[in-house]
Design a protein that fits this description.
Blueprint lengths: L1 H35 L18 E7 L14 E7 L18 E2 L14 E2 L17 E6 L15 E7 L3 E14 L17 E6 L1 H10 L4 E6 L12 E3 L16 E9 L2 E8 L2 E4 L19
Antiparallel strand pairs: 1-2, 3-4, 5-8, 6-7, 6-9, 7-8, 7-10, 11-12, 12-13
Length: about 300
């Protein structure tokens, strides 16, 4: 009986040793395979680089560029822009455009486009760009008196007067000043403006002929207008005789053929049809009647 127990115990121990050996063999096989593959785990593939981080260098002006400047005269630097944010058409090579001029003001540090450039000088004149079709630009000499101390500057509206020894005549009305002393910049602020020696005017063809005809006859002066004033002169000619008073010369009385009174947001306004033109009237003309108004004799 004791021999049989020992035999069974020996069999159990041999089975345990066999299982342990098989486990060690499996581990050895796995370790060998790991060593054959290089001993390190395979690296994960890197994600593709996003276009957001890809930059493209383009030339940009270092400073503000006024219209009419030649490309060869501009200082440039190269800036990197994200490829997917670079506007289509941005110029990356300036070599074909070195003789071109910019047709509009360019800000600093921004790309250029072919639409900003011209190979002719046509777009480089800031005065020409402000002349509508059918209009003309003429230049006349002025001084502090004729230019209203310089307040008749670029962008203002004036009436042009011819001053002779015995009379003054309105030559042209509602004329826009394009430039003063070769600049189109408008005066801003309350500081005293510089008095120009020359002024360029935007005129119709007829006004161009009238002003140039008037220049050699006497002195040219400006009457500065409000931007909102579009009324015409009642008398376009004033003679020296009228300075002597109404007894020296009899003023031609206008023919009034119509009268209207309108009440609006700005109060009561009246207009009279005088010599074929509607003009503002502060009195009720003789021979007309309006509700709530009394007729007054004109002085």
């Amino acid at each position: 009986m004791a021999l049989r127990k020992n035999t069974r115990a020996g069999l159990g121990r041999r089975r345990s040793h066999g299982l342990i050996g098989m486990g060690l063999l499996s581990l050895s096989i796995l370790a060998g395979a790991f060593m054959l593959r290089g001993g390190t785990p395979a690296a994960a593939p890197e994600p593709p680089t996003s276009a957001l981080w890809e930059t493209v260098e383009v030339p940009v002006p270092t400073d503000f560029v006024p219209a009419g400047t030649r490309i060869s005269q501009i200082r440039f630097k190269h800036l990197g822009f994200p490829r997917d944010q670079l506007p289509r058409g941005a110029i990356r090579d300036l070599s074909p455009y070195m003789e071109a001029v910019v047709v509009a003001p360019l800000p600093a540090n921004l790309p250029l486009f072919r639409e900003n450039l011209s190979h002719s000088a046509r777009g480089s004149n800031p005065v020409i760009e402000r002349i509508p079709t059918g209009m003309r630009a003429i230049t006349i000499q002025v001084d502090a008196t004729s230019a209203v101390e310089g307040w008749a500057g670029s962008g203002s509206v004036v009436d042009v007067l011819l001053v002779e020894e015995t009379r003054s005549t309105v030559v042209a009305e509602q004329v826009k000043v394009l430039s003063t002393e070769r600049t189109v910049a408008q005066h801003e602020g309350e500081a005293a403006p510089a008095v120009p020696s020359t002024v360029t005017l935007l005129v119709t063809q007829e006004q161009a002929l009238a002003i140039n005809t008037a220049v050699p006859r006497g002195r040219i002066a400006f009457a500065l207008r409000s931007f909102d004033d579009d009324e015409r002169w009642l008398d376009r000619v004033y003679t020296a005789e009228r300075l002597k008073g109404p007894s020296a010369v009899k003023r031609n009385k206008s023919k009034i053929k119509g009268y209207i009174s309108i009440k609006g947001e700005n109060g009561q306004q009246a207009f009279a049809l005088a010599d074929g033109k509607w003009i503002r009237s502060r009195i009720l003309p003789e021979g007309f009647f309006a509700m709530g108004q009394e007729r007054h004799e004109e002085n």
